[in-house]
Amino acid sequence: MLQSDFPLLGSPRRGKVRDIYDLPEIYSTLGGRLILVATDRISAFDVVLPNGIPNKGMVLNTISALWMMNLGKVIANHLVCCDPTEYPSICRPYIDQLLGRSMLVQKASPLPVECIVRGYLAGSGWKSYLQNQTVCGIQLPPGLTESAKLPEPIFTPSTKAESGHDQNITFEQMVGIVGRETAKTVKTASLALYNQAQTLAEQAGIIIADTKFEFGFDVVGCLILIDEVLTPDSSRFWPIDGYRAGGPQPSFDKQFVRDWLEQQNWDKQPPAPTLPAEVVEQTSLKYLQALQRLRAVLEE
Q1: pLDDT band per the 50, 70, 90 thresholds, residue 27
Q2: Both ends of the chain: CA-CA distance in Å?
Q3: How far, in whole angstroms, is CA 246 from its chain's centroid?
Q4: Could you tell me which of 251, 259, 250 has the C-alpha nearest to residue 287?
Q5: Which homologous superfamily is 110-254 in?
Q6: CA 42 to CA 18: how far, in whole Å?
């Protein structure tokens, strides 16, 4: 599914991967409800690619829901349920399409920042370290190599761009955007979520090198965790048994797609190149492997 179409639910807002339906007030409750639909679209470098990845939406939706059910004691989240038979009656004509790739969530006002936690040095963090041994203003020890484990996880926020590329910012810049109290709360929550998730993921043979969280305020002003959580789209998942610091790592995420795109003559602006069949197949397999490993631990 590259795009959902549920006329009774109205016109969705379409993100890079998710289609978001705002349920009519008559079918909602205090504060409102949304239906989030995880499509099989895939983005890289903040650009949606022309072709999708089979099973991807199902994997993202299932992993997100499992994490939310396991990490709810750290901070409340927006998940109401992910069984379409329990959704409002207006959704019944679409149950088959919603099954496995959707969730009913409470509405929230999202913070205009993304909350990134890094436990290992990769991606834009590694590029920043090469320039001045810092990541988002945080000074790191000298002599670290690519994919090295950091002395402790670090909180490195970024802007949230509606289009184009997000930009890494310092914690103080984040304070200027959301206020100091909110910034401190989400930093503490993000690090706690990462640390607990890392412990669980290691039992599944996965290293969470880094991940992105998003937060918002619910109708009564409480800060809650929203959007996707600890998926192969929002995180770097590395197999523990293949980990060797000093270079790029094998992964269960879309790094395989990024690596292929980096080899193309593409300026990282739309339109993106079409992925070849073998890249699509291998990426789908990696997502399914991540789900299989995590499900074995998170469903216990």
Answers
A1: low
A2: 30
A3: 25
A4: 251
A5: ATP-grasp fold, B domain (3.30.470.20)
A6: 10
The model's pTM: 0.92
Per-domain boundaries in the chain: 7-107, 110-254
Evaluate whether the domain defined by 7-107 bears CATH number 3.10.620.30: no
Per-residue model confidence (pLDDT) at position 160: 81
Residue with tokens 């995880």: 38
Task: Please name which of 205, 189, 200 lies closest in space to residue 157, comparing C-alpha atoms.
Answer: 189
Tokens read off for 175: 């304070």
The mean pLDDT value of the chain amounts to 93
269 φ, ψ (degrees, to nearest 5): -120, 150
Given a contact cutoff of 8 angstroms between Cβ atoms, the answer to whether 247 and 147 are in contact is yes
Non-local (6+) Cβ contacts of 180 within 8 A are none
